[in-house]
Amino acid sequence: MNKLFNEIGRKFKQSSKSDKLLVSAGLVLVLGMILLGLFASFVSPYGPYEMSQSRLSPPSTEHLFGTDYLGRDILSRMAYGTRISLLVAAVAASVSLILGASLGLFSGYFGGNMDRVIGLTMDALYSFPVIVLAIMMTIMLGPGVTSTAIGVGIALTPSYYRVTRSFVLSIKERGFIEGVRAIGAGDLHIMSRHILPNALPSLAVLASFNMAEGIISVAGLGFLGLGVPQPTPEWGADLKMGRDVLAYGAWWVSVFPGLMILAMVLGVNMLSEGVNSLFKLGVRRR
Amino acid sequence: MPVLEVSNLETVFATGAGLVQAVSDVSFTLDKEESLGLAGESGCGKSTTAMSIMKLIRPPGRIAGGKILFEGEDLVPKTEAEMRQIRGKKISIVFQGVSGALNPVFKLGDQLAEAVLNHEQIDKDEALKRAQGILDLVGIDRSRTNNYPHEFSGGMKQRIMIATALICNPNVVIADEPTTALDVISQGQVLKLIDDLQRKLGLSLLLITHDLSVIAEVCDKLVIMYAGKIAEYGDVATVLKSPLHPYSQALVHAFPPLKGAKQRLESIPGSPPILINPPSGCRFHPRCPHAMDICRGEVPRLVEVEKGQKVACYLHPAK
After folding, report:
1. Which of A13, B62, B108, B208 has the fewest beta carbons closer than 10 A?
2. Cα–Cα–Cα angle for B68, B73, B78, rounded to 5 degrees
3. Phi-psi bin for B257: left (phi > 0), alpha (psi -120 to 50), beta?
4. Is A67 exposed, middle or buried (CB count within 10 Å of its CB: 0-12, 13-18, 19+)?
5. Yes or no, beta carbons of B95 and A198 under 8 Å apart
């Protein structure tokens, strides 16, 4: 582990100025978001569901980000919303990583008809925008935190499938695979112990790219009223709520959720782009 | 009692252009603690024979016939699961080309230990100890189990490959061109190592190479293959001193003599046949200076001509 950190440190020192800026800014934003989510209960002056008498009040010393039409403190809802956003995005990324990587491993390793069937299915999924698939999935699975996470996860699966499969195709022809076969290793062992670890760095970067995609999708579903149900504090749903009251001049209800989504996606993107170019992995985003 | 007996082995590859008969009617035996050399030019079926014995031939290739008796048991009908018990434990192989032969993401110790853990119910620490012991044997410092493959030279990697093959004390070791990817000095070291180990451990060794001088140095017996068939088979000293098959003669004469006057090296006219549609009769007849009518029509059988020397050629009828 220590070796890994030293390696990362060395790579960081050698990288260009713009990459350094990218990585550090991304790191600050993402870490800040994670801390905000972890310590939401300390940061928030009120509870996320707590309603006060002052409805739709503009930002003031009492309510730093103002309140919504039910008199709930927007700052508190934003802080708690971080948890939902991070949680759902992380679960979605894990679901798609596990699903995509295992399908890609089997498909690339065994080839043949199974490869063709899985490949066609994945290509068909890949041809839809993630948000459309996510909408279909959440409609099928019903509303809720878990189903949103799984829905977005399945929608993101094809990109992992493709990266893993192409890795398997190149690695399985390398000499050491023949070598471990010759010392009596089985197929599952070769796939999990010898092929997968070689693909991990690229999958990790892809996962961080997809985190951003996941965050946008979750917020998008919330905005469309399909994601995490109300009154759970969720940025997308709160943004939608803000849009409805824009006509009354209550800009703060929608601007702050928007800024949160922006900051989060920007942070995750900068970090993943930075790491990608730091390690010269050359993973392309969708 | 032979430890390995290959009889009438046929291995074919189905390609778009037709069936390639890569190995046809190959038979030889390997006795315990004996070392057998398998020689011939590129594409003559040496490696395919080795891969067939390991049953590592992958589609579109398959073993189409014959028997591979290992300690009296035929390997050809065995399932993949049964073969996994044998590979690395009973029969192991050292591959040609070392650059890609080790997994770049694992430490050396882990890779060696894996070879043991595939077959024996021991814990990781014990397996790592075995790995260190085997490294001593091939002359690599035992502290280097913590290094990754890129931290070793080509010659060292080849030694590591040999160590991997030996770690489970296999009954038969196949070395498929173990020195091809190395420079001359490393070649010498690796060959000496193989020779030493063969004597010291009493290995039953099948050494595949296109370099007759390697076989002269290491082996007891010699098989010369041409176009997927055995041309000549016998004791190394006999065959190299007085080769009888025109192809073996040409092969032996293509090596410069170390002593005596310099001579012009002979080359064999023509090129090896494409095995989708091999020449009728003796497969060597289109390039053979002594070709007769019978060579074109009928396939010569491998017969014992002198004691310890079998030849498949109509110039040399059975005694």
Report:
1. A13
2. 75
3. beta
4. buried
5. no
Residues of B in contact with A184 (CB under 8 A): 84-89, 115, 118-119
Cα dihedral value A280, A282, A284, A285, nearest 10: -20
Model confidence, pTM? 0.75
Three-state secondary structure of B130-170: HHHHHHHHHCCCHHHHHCCHHHCCHHHHHHHHHHHHHCCCC
**Distance linking the first and last C-alpha atoms of chain A:** 31
Structure tokens at B196: 């030493």
Query: Along the 319 residues of chain B, how does pLDDT read in single tens digits?
Result: 789 999 899 999 988 888 888 898 899 999 988 999 998 888 888 889 999 999 988 888 888 888 899 988 898 898 888 888 888 889 998 887 666 778 888 888 888 888 888 888 888 888 888 889 888 888 888 888 889 988 888 888 888 888 888 888 888 999 888 887 778 888 888 888 888 888 888 889 999 988 888 888 888 999 999 888 888 998 988 888 888 888 888 888 877 776 777 777 777 878 888 888 888 888 888 888 888 888 888 888 888 888 888 888 888 887 6
Return the residue matching tokens 């399932």.
B79
- Start-to-end C-alpha separation, chain B: 25
- C-alpha–C-alpha distance, residues A43 and A150, integer Å: 29
The whole-angstrom separation of Cα A230 and Cα A143 is: 10
Domain A82-286: CATH architecture, name and number where available: Orthogonal Bundle (1.10)
B40 torsion bin: left (phi>0), alpha (psi -120 to 50), beta (else): left
Q: How many CA atoms lie within 13 A of A58 on its CB side?
A: 5
Q: What is the ipTM metric for this complex?
A: 0.73
Name the token pair of B139.
Answer: 């002359």
> What interhelical angle do A196-223 and A235-245 show, nearest 10?
20
Q: How far is B45 from chain A (nearest CA, A)?
A: 18
Q: DSSP letters along B42-103, please?
A: TTSSHHHHHHHHHT---TTEEEEEEEEEETTEESTT--HHHHHHHBTTTEEEE-S--TTSS-
A183 touches chain B (CB under 8 A): yes
Q: Residue B230's closest CA among B214, B245, B211? A: B245
- What is d(CA B143, CA B160) in angstroms, rounded to the nearest whole number? 14
Asked if the C-beta of B105 comes within 8 angstroms of chain A's C-beta atoms, the answer is yes
Domain ranges of chain A: 82-286
Sequence letter at residue A69: Y
Contact A197 B114 (CB under 8 A): no
| Two tokens, residue A229 | 């149900």
